[in-house]
Amino acid sequence: MATDAEHHQIFSVIRERRSVRNYTDREVPDESIQKIIAAGIQAPTALGLQPWQFVVVRDRDLMRQVSDYCKPILAEKIREEPRHPETEAFLAALRDPAYSIFYNAPVLVLVLGAREVVSSVIDCALCAENMLLAAWALGLGSCWVGSATLVEQNPRLLAALRVPDDHQIVAPLIFGYPALLLPKPERREPLITWVP
Ligand SMILES: Cc1cc2nc3c(=O)[nH]c(=O)nc-3n(C[C@H](O)[C@H](O)[C@H](O)COP(=O)(O)O)c2cc1C
Questions:
Q1: Which domain range does residue 70 map to?
Q2: Is residue 19 within 6 Å of ligand 1 at its C-beta?
Q3: Total structural domains in the chain?
Q4: Does the residue 190 lie in any domain?
Q5: 187 Cα to the center of ligand 1, angstroms
Q6: Is position 113 within any domain?
Q7: Most buried residue among 41, 54, 62, 153 by CB atoms closer than 10 A?
Q8: Distances from the Cα of 96 to the Cαs of 87, 92, 150, 173, in angstroms?
């Protein structure tokens, strides 16, 4: 069992972690990625099947191609939704050729879920959250870039990313050293119903 001090640390990591959308060029060592994945696979899985695989992408040119492919599809999806000031700003960013959905992070890790396991999306999401927390504990920033799953519509890029047919992309996660840390978005007070 963890000591009191270790318990204290996990609460501060959970509280402080936030999505990072601006990275330095500093490479993330393979050992850090290994540690992050090692933390990921400690997550519980519904049937104990651990239905995941990981792809580590450091190829910035490939990441750029994935981003360029996803951006217009994403813009189209957003245009179909009700307008908010935030989405207007995001639409403008998507039109900027320099904007990458991966925010110039040096590494992308795809958490892939086995298609034949019914619980694999939930299992892989738990794995992914462990990975985001582990990254923060190592001094790394991260962001779950859900929009990158749109790449599943492109067989050529999917093959380049080495995603096997029997797996789907559940969590595209970027990691890197933060260049800019913005304040964490405030959380609303949770609605809690206590049933005596
Ligand atoms: C399933 C999922 C998909 C997400 N997709 C994106 C994304 O495509 N781009 C992005 O910048 N952030 C993405 N995020 C990050 C959220 O915007 C972020 O977690 C949320 O605003 C709360 O901020 P925090 O992570 O800093 O606490 C995603 C998060 C989740 C859980």
A1: 20-176
A2: yes
A3: 1
A4: no
A5: 14
A6: yes
A7: 54
A8: 14, 7, 19, 22
